[in-house]
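Why show two proteins at once? Because comparison is the fastest way to build intuition. When a single record is shown, students tend to memorize it. When two are placed side by side, the eye starts asking what differs. So, the first record is below.
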Amino acid sequence: MLQGVCCSDIMRCFITEEKATGEVLERQMRNEIRGIKNMFAPNIDAVPKGDTWSVRAEVVGPRVLRPDEVRLMENRVGKSSGKKVDLHVWSRVELVVTGTDYIPVENFIKEQVDKN
């Protein structure tokens, strides 16, 4: 035990640091996904798995992401964060399409409910 620091304090710091790292990776990955035209990421989760971070993303868009796009995002987020990142994408092609835009179904429904 470190002088003046108990085990629960160390665990609390570790958990807080782990949570903060996960939130950073989730935000970075969401930005990467949004950087692809008409792709949306309603849900992203990052959890540590040994020395790697496993990032799971629900991605909605007019097409399925290609493996090379996933690999590129893993590399970019890994490089910027200094962490090894494995990205797993659950792709859904569920959009409301208007004459001018794509809108994820969840967002469209929320907009309709908020209007009423």
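Second record. Ask yourself what differs from the first in the token line.
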Amino acid sequence: MPTQEDIDTCPLVSRHTSEWGINPVTLAKLHWLRELDLPSEEGVPFKWPSKLRPTIWSALKGCDTGDALIPKQYQLVMAHHLGRMPASLMGTRSA
């Protein structure tokens, strides 16, 4: 869990979030979870979507790099959420 130092240095905590009344401890926890990456065999069960590339595409070169795409666990959770929920945690709506 985040320490007081984590809360003080959290990039999600700002003057604006304080003015809006968002708890800095909650933001520090969210940032801590985002930085945490568990080994995939112990992480979130995830069925790879057919439309998601297994390798990284270079927009600059316009080709596949051949490097494996290895998402972090929080990214798998968000992909799972976005694929199944009508409204996401990020405030967007799926079609």
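One difference worth noting in the second protein: Residues 1-36 form one domain.
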